[in-house]
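[stage:ingest] chain + small molecule (NDP)
[stage:ingest] validated
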Amino acid sequence: MQIKNKNIKKIIERVVKKDPLEKEFHQAIGEVLCSLEPLLEKCPEYEDFAVLERIIEPERTVIFRVSWMDDKGKVHVNRGMRIEFNSAIGPYKGGLRFHPSVNVGIMKFLGFEQIFKNSLTGLPIGSGKGGSDFDPKGKSDTEVMRFCQSFMTELQRHIGPNTDIPAGDIGVGPREIGYMYGQYRRLRNDFTGVLTGKGLSYGGLLARKEATGFGLIYFVREILKDKKDTFEGKTVTVSGSGNVAIYAAQKAIELGGKVVAMSDSDGCVFDSKGIDIETVKKIKEVERKRIKEYTKSHLGSKYYENCKGIWTIKTDIALPCATQNELDEKAAKTLIENGCRLVAEGANMPCTPEAIELFQKNSVLFGPAKAGNAGGVAISTIEMAQNNSHYPWTFEEVDTKLQEIMTNIYKNIKKASLDYGFENNLVAGANIAGFVKVADAMLAQGVSH
Ligand code: NDP
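[stage:predict] done
[stage:export] tokens:
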């Protein structure tokens, strides 16, 4: 998208000059700021009080050493970090990612996106993101435990149930959250809701595990409903086979879709009869093995040694649920040529700007991540409420709330897109609707941050 506003151009140029290596962060701010142009024309106070300059600068960044010992007694050193990005509308909230690719630029892009996502939920949550370049893959449970304990030994001094409430993300699931929570409790002598995604026996919430994936499908259901359509009989491809992908696939199947392919970072499986999601859960959640194992128990299914191969499979609906920039222009072109009608992002920023532009030009319905995957953080906020009130929610209550939140998100971003002249552009609608609430809160609270 062309940027006409000179101030926005200058701001982006300054960020690129200051931190030239943070490519994902540049990509994220470019996408958000350029869709704010019509809003800034109507509301000059955002520029007058430098809200754009302030909103792209994290309130605080903490970087720390994490030393831990493997099972053979060898000491390893990783880098941990937490970006406390924006607390204008509530305490910092957002996941922790453990993956070798973690660096400040990736954390900043995720933390920045989280500002608008959290705002779209309608709940009082600010934005944070963190993690480490530690790779849990191939490590024993005891190694993961020692790493998590060391990580939390430092992180605990920066977080709290009313300050910053981390959750899971790539590489951080119930096992890692459990080890970190145990260490927090030991160090602080405080049984409190400082992390979300906890186990059910110690404060966790029913349906939190399912929330991001289910939420994505509820969001897509609204897009389809607007076109007088449903999931019934549609083929669906879902990249990844982690927390988001598994529960997105499960709900798509429950609503009548046929999920024909899933993947991991090594490759993808195709099953023309429809993926058996219970097998995927067993391989990924219980055995922690690779997706290619699927073909051993499902004769006729095929495995391709390239995760990007998933975008060459013919599908009506494509749901990228693995990682950032996994779906590029070439993949978008192939999807369009193969008749794909709808793409919705389960992962954060999985589609490159060029891919999104191509979808929009070809009238492929497109649902952006900050709206589509907001169900996870929204339901994490219910976990915080459950912890504060000591009153447990049922699965049905949480699921009903999730459906209500996702429907509202869709309605609000669609309305914002129409109000500001971006018809059929939910990306712009999500950016504007998410921005306004946070920007107004920043204005109301004065120039202290
Ligand atoms: P998980 O760690 O549970 O799963 C990630 C999955 O993606 C794994 O199957 C992983 O495979 C796969 N993967 C990683 N890189 C690639 C790649 N290049 N191509 C194909 N597959 C790949 O993470 P989550 O499911 O929690 O997170 C997935 C995405 O959703 C992330 O972008 C995250 O930020 C976002 N998200 C997650 C939320 C949540 O509640 N969990 C909430 C909102 C957003 P492998 O095992 O080989 O690494």
